[in-house]
Amino acid sequence: MRKLHESILKSVEITTQITQNGKEAVDIFRSGANFDIVFMDMEMPIMNGIEATKELRAMGVVCKIVGVTSCENTTKKEAFKQAGLDILHEKPLTLAKVNSILEQPRIDHESKLANIWSP
Asked: Which residues are modified to 4-aspartylphosphate (predicted)?
């Protein structure tokens, strides 16, 4: 699934940096890296997507965070959204979903206002 998602992102000229788990994603931001958009998988080892998203928002990360999941549990999906996601999509991502994501405004989690975002 990861290779499919990476291929779709590259097809719309998005440069990707892949992590193996949520802790690696958080550590990349702690090291000073910045991104325009993060695609966060809910089901990751070590630190899941919910925990990683909460941590990123607590650190002041304001980029668009898009959650992806194959989970059908409504309560878990709602917890993922509440962690600070801008958008949540079910796996697999498709080219149509990615294009839709790129066109949507980013939510300003500080003021709760939507801002226009472009890659």
From this structure: 41
Peptide bond before residue 92 is cis, with ω within 30 degrees of 0? yes
What is the Cα gyration radius of the chain? 13
Residue 115 lies in a domain: no
pLDDT tens by residue, 51-94: 999 999 999 999 999 999 999 999 999 999 999 999 999 999 89
CB neighbourhood size of 36 (10 A): 13
Q: State whether residue 47 is helix, strand or coil.
A: coil
The domain total for the chain is 1
